[in-house]
Amino acid sequence: MEFKTATMADFDVAFDYIEKLWTYNTYDKEVIRKVYADVLADENSFAFFLMDGDTYHGFCHGAYFNTFWLSGMTCYVSSIITNEDERGKGCGVKLMDHAKELAKARGCKALVLDSGMPRTQAHRFYEIYGFEKSCYGFDYYLEP
C-alpha cells in the first residue's frame, strides 16, 4: 500500500469518506468542494489517501498550528477514516503513522484530535494507538 497526496481529481472519493465519517451531519457538496480546495492549497494542511493500486483504503486530513499549550507546533488530525469492511486490518494504523511522520517532519510536538461522541469504535482505536483522553470538546456555532 502507498500514500497518495489528495488532489482535486480525488474530490468525489474524499467527499464519500467525509459523509461516512460524520453520518450525523449533512453536507452541501459544493461547499465541501471549496473547503477541500482550500485545504489542498493551504501549506499548513495535509490530506492524503491510503491506496493499493487504484483502490482507496482510507483518507486522512489535518493541519499544523502553533499552540501555547504545547509550546510549539502541533498537528491536529481532523479526519481519519478507513473503509468499513477493512477495519481492524491495519489501514488506520498506516494512516496515523503517516500523519505522525508528516508531523515530525514539520517539527510538531504532538498529534491531537477530537472525535464525535457516537464514534466509540474510533475511540477504542485511538486509545490502542496510544492517544490519551485529555479534554472535552465543545462547539459554539456562530450565526452568519
Automatic annotation (TrEMBL):
Superkingdom classification of source: Bacteria
Stretches assigned to the N-acetyltransferase domain: 1-144
Annotated InterPro entries: Acyl_CoA_acyltransferase, GNAT_dom
Alphabetical list of Gene3D superfamilies matching this protein: 3.40.630.30
GO molecular function: acyltransferase activity, transferring groups other than amino-acyl groups
Entry keywords, A to Z: Transferase
Name by which UniProt lists this protein: GNAT family N-acetyltransferase
